[in-house]
Amino acid sequence: LHLRLVAIHVVKRRLLSLISLRSTGKDFDEDEAMNIAATKKQKSPKSSVVYHQLDSSVIEEVKDLIEDIRDMYDEAENYLFKSHATWVEGTVTFWKHRATSEAYVLCPIAKNDANDDMTGVNRSELQDKEAIRCFEKLVKAEKPSNPDSWMDYIRYVSSSHVHSFGGDNIFSQLHPDGFAAVPSVIRKTRGLYNRALSSVRKAGQSENSIDSKRAEAGLNNDMFERNYDNSLLDLCREFLCFERAFGSEESLSRAQTLVRSKMAQWTAPPPQMITNGNEQSDDTHGKRKAVEEVPSNDAMEEDGDDEMPSQSRSKKTKVQTNLKQPKKTEGVHKVRIGKLEYPAHPYTIHVSNLSKETQDMDLVDVFRKEVGEIVHVKILREKKFGRGGHHSHGESKCVGLVQFEECISVEKALLMDGTLDVGGKLIKIQRSHLPAVGIVPQGMHRVKPKGEGKSSKRNQMKKGSKLQVDTSEERMDCDNGGDLKSSKISGASNVETPSSISLSVLSFKPRNMKRKPILDTKK
């Protein structure tokens, strides 16, 4: 496709050069001054160009070149349709190339052909329709449409040479005359602006389209090298300028409402990032300043804030709320696992490419010396089932987690990626979304001290409850026996205080049992 378009461009240069040299003696790529002589009596400057009428042979060659160019465009269109029917970038590039050539080169030359058999009305009408047909193909080739395509279309329709739709001031019911053509073009331009804003997507929306491949597949087309939001911003700005120049208060108000709906999710350009950075020193003042500076950068809301009703002010407040949303994720690192992203843990790193023999304390010794204080280190291992139980360590997965006491230690460790040697191997260091240990109280060491675990506390509670039961039984026996002497005869120990009670097996005393009466079977 690129070779075909280059070949067409070469033939188009030949056409322009032929007409320019035969009519003025100067080539088309040279400059020419504006001739502002008011009357014939005034002498034209020496640098003015003298025009000559073209010969019939030159006119025939011009006709042949125009037919050749259009045949080449038709052949390129057929090639594109048969070989790459779903190639959106190529289709947009082709129709932009052809629409520009038809609008500014082929159609103006063909309309001035004096030897055409058609009448002036039909000749002008057909040539304009050919250019408009190409622009319609251009804006419909991509969904959602590109704002630059619409701006090229609107510039052609709003230019002065299209004012003569229908011919040389000949009135008809379908085409306006010279007087009615001026407001007609204004209405048509406004209609194209409304169509453009209804067919493009909103600014700031993420779209799974071809935006990422445009710079490579655009074939030197400037339209594909521009950011979509910037193109949409230019389209909205030109629409508002058009309404201020040729519209009324009502049409300007409708245009501002339509533009605000499209730019509601638009984020400010890089200068706004400086404002966001100053918010750390003064949050209240910084947030107000960031919100107030965004409308001043947007030319769409100029001169319209005082004229808009309360409904427009509510929409403006909604825009300010949306602009605050990106601040929530500023400075938060992400860890990608498969197709999902998780926030990185601020104190933990993920270490890989370890040897099988590397132990937890090996990582502790290395990172404590090179980076900083460590809270916990854990090497991930395979689970081992069956004989040996869960107490035996499984085989190492050669990866581990290291949790530091300070966030700055994580940044220092990341700088050592691929340079730190552990167990004779250079390890790889990345951010981790998982901590090495779940909950770490402040000041707790790497290993829990003995006696403060969950099982130790549970055993201590059981001993305390058993101590309570034994002392209560001893007191009941003393009350029922009358004195402590009878209790000594039965083999019990003297109980004075709960602390003097022994917890050995010999201190166990069964409860009193009554002997059952013996039944006389002889009776």
TrEMBL record:
PROSITE patterns: RRM (PS50102). CDD domains: RRM_SF (cd00590). GO terms for molecular function: RNA binding. Residues 456-465 have a biased composition (Basic residues). Residues 265-330, 443-497 are annotated as: Disordered. Residues 347-434 form the RRM domain. Residues 487-497 have a biased composition (Polar residues). Keywords: RNA-binding. Residues 282-292 have a biased composition (Basic and acidic residues). Residues 299-308 have a biased composition (Acidic residues). Gene3D superfamilies: 3.30.70.330, Tetratricopeptide repeat domain. InterPro entries: Nucleotide-bd_a/b_plait_sf, RBD_domain_sf, RRM_dom, TPR-like_helical_dom_sf. This is RRM domain-containing protein. It comes from Skeletonema marinoi.
